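One such shown below:
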Amino acid sequence: MKRYSFLFLIPVLLLASCGSDKNSESTLGKKIFRYNESAGITSLDPAFSRNIENIWACNQLYNGLVEMDDELNIKPCIAKNWEISDDGKTYTFHLRNDVYFHDHELFNNKKGRNVTAQDFVYSFNRILDSKVASPGAWIFNNVDYNEAYNYAPFVAIDDTTLQIYLSQPFPPFLGILTMQYCSVVAKEIVEYYKNDYRNSPIGTGPFKFKMWDEGNKMVFLKNDNYFEKDEQGNKLPYLDAVAITFIKDEEVEFLKFLNGELEFVSGREGSYKEEIFTNTGELKKKYQQQIKMLTHPYLNTEYLGILVDDELQLVANSPLRKKLVRQAINYGFDRKQMLSYLRKGIGTPATAGFIPKGLPSFDASLVKGYDYNPEKARELLYSAGYPNGKNMPEITLFTTIGYVDLCEFIQHQLTEIGIKTKVEILPATTHRELVARSKLNFFRKSWIADYPDAENYLALFYSKNFTPHGPNYTHFKNFDFDKLYEMAQSEINDSTRFHLYREMDKIIIEEAPVIPLYYDQVVRLIQTNVKDLGINPVNLLTLKKVMIEEKKEN
């Protein structure tokens, strides 16, 4: 395979290709982290950091008040410390005074100016601005328009003191503030570029924007004025640059990784998984000296959703309206076998609740889900009036092309207990729209955590969150669940709140508006000379502490 380098000379010749000289970057002594983004990046504006591709890029360019470490602990960032009022409704953040925006001609002397509390007021109000139309506006659903401050939810008390007011206590709020939506931006830069800010970003992060050739490559350079240091007092970041390419073909991407032209590959999709993974999800022996694999539970629950709203005609005519049928489906297929055959054992069978492994409130010993039990499934079908599936109408499971193998596996095993199932493939955008409009009775779906709290998962079943105005795709409604959910919203004690979460999860398992399939796993393949990349349950890519050592020749 002909090789191409995606690295570029720094700083003067950065935009010129290094061609086929594989050692050009090492002879310059530059440390450049290269990765590929096959799905593309649509914006470098944190107000549009909705998908993981944009989030990863924005995480290198921006900072917020707080950040999350790999163990989901919330740590200071631009805010050096904070207090929460006794009633849980007022958050006071004290900011560092040594954080500067990246250099730009619009600033005095073309140097980056100091970040103040007023910058956060502007940035947060911008997320709520309907003219901006940020998909992240929901993150501030709980803010209170405080009468004492002219009905402003965000107030700069002085340059280094910011207050945020909530209408009610909401313990996950600090976690929400770690999201890239909450990054600080500079008003004068955003308003100068207007719609072009998406490709002209100025942040405070460890790397600064250099260039973006859409569909081809993107480059960030080291921010020499970055405020964070490591434990030994050394300035971060260690890398000189980040280079991102946009090769759509996953096989080509993987070959370039094996060829040493990329430092990192995320995930285990594509046909190359057959080449490198054993049936138990380990690296095959021939690759163990060449590359490293990092794995971690991923806050992502893959599931089948069932519309359960009896007021909809689609539900009234379906056998899925019966809880016993939904429970029978849950018992009717082997999740462990499914993962072993189709995902090389990567992931955890969802035999507990809907809350995924990796969250502190997850406890498989307290929340019991469904194991493979075809006899139990047949008993439930009999009780539902469909002995061995007799007289039960065929049900249709809607999915997208990437999950056909999983759905056909389930289809085959359900047939064995008498449940006739048809699998129908839809384009991803069509599938997403029809689910949101409650037009599909039975559908494959996944939920990746927006923030590291089980409330984010349980919100999918709160009756006031019916789609299209919320994430309750199944239109599940249960009085006891709603009562527990509302109690948990204002519960500050973690242990008590986690107990409430588990009680809600038990209701979901019993009523079965969803069929949990598996709890996903983050998989990262990296070159052996990449150090301290890290891995975390939200699959956030953080490069400020990454080092690249000289690769030893075999």
In short: The longest helix spans residues 494-511.
